[in-house]
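RETRY 2/3 - previous attempt timed out on the joint model. Re-submitting the same 472-residue input unchanged.
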Amino acid sequence: MEHQPPPFFRTGPTPLARLLIFSALSLAFLVSDVRFNYLDSLRQVAAIVVYPLQRIAAAPASIVRRIGDFFVTHGSLREENARLTQENFDNAALLLRLKALQAENAQLRDLLAARERLGTKLIAAEVLYVARDPFSRKVMIDKGSQGDIRAGQVAVDNRGVVGQVTRVYPWLSEVTLVTDKDQFVPVQNLRNGLRSILSGTGSDGTLELRFVPSNADFEPGDELVTSGIDGVYPPGLPVARVTSVERAANQIFARVTGVPLGGVANHAHLLITGGSRDLPPRPSADEPKSPRPKKSRKG
Amino acid sequence: MADTRVTPHEILLPVRAGFIAATLLGALLLNLLPWSGVWLSIKPDFVALVLLCWCVEQPRKVGFVSAWLLGLVMDVADGALFGQHALSYSVLAYAGIVLHRRVLMFSGTPQVLHVVVLLLMNDLIVITVRVLAGADFPGFQYFIGSIVASALWLPLGVLLKLPQRPQPDPDRV
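RETRY 2/3 succeeded.
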């Protein structure tokens, strides 16, 4: 004890030792987040701590927006009203047909004893802020698991698919936009029913169909809607419009790019819908393997 | 010649822990504001800036624990990988603590040049982590935020020292 320095000079481990400890801890967190998802509960705790700050920080913008809403001019209101009336007329006709079609569809499905295809539950949520992560395209919305939102659900706006809920906190959720590099949407071409997988490119406003054979029938102007075969995205939601198709003779795949139809870059309200439906169980992987050895014995 | 660079240090009151916490919280709130568009691309990382400021000014009071926890909070708020900011802020705190005497020796532009290097290193760590995890390089505009941040360094230094300035005693001339 006599050789210990007095408390005033005692500073604990050296900065380098501390750096090593904290770096090792951070790296462990990183690896576990990338590979294993062990720390989701810790992330939930941190999210609850941050939540009040997020709400406080988002408050000024929403106040400004509300003040802006208050000072809308008479002219723009009338203009909007006229436009909405017109839209309402247009939609009413479609809606009448839709009702008839729905009834007819329900009857046919009853005949086929098929399952209900699309849950009609829609949850409205507001975009709080754009996540400041230049490596991904994500937005935070103001509803979470307490608002009955589950990971995997689809975020749409009035024009099309915007993204997918990828992480759910108690009162907030993270929506990965369709423009994110690692976000994939199974789509089909509305014109000819051709299926493909749409992925983001990481840059705003550009989507790409990967691994499309160069003779596939995609043309600029084609509208891509969700195909629904994945069981996650409800079928028939507009996703993108093809803008360019490049076919090079020395490439196996055509380069098909498009623009998202949903307001991906807008701060707006989103509707959260869909989620994994009850699909029949997948055939187990062992079944197809069993005939093979028999065949080889025969041969 | 060397003497002209060394500024006479003011004698300041001891800083209160509550003030440090409040400034870090304020920086966090600034980071969480709904930035978008051009503003998002030039937005400095306020947390890194304030953290570095305190690590340089008060290396005994602000250090690794606060840096690491703030990093985790930023990761959750940004929807980033859990631990990327924790790592970069820890290294930033280390650099700030180890270099604090050296940085304080300088004033004005030379000090800012030290700070810009440290903040760019902070960015570089985040980029390295994300590229290793499979992301694309986001382009050089990613570094603009740190350059803007270093421009804010000197005003921020003045601001953070304001409450520690001894009040002039009105009874004495």
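The radius of gyration of chain B is 17 Å. Closing ticket.
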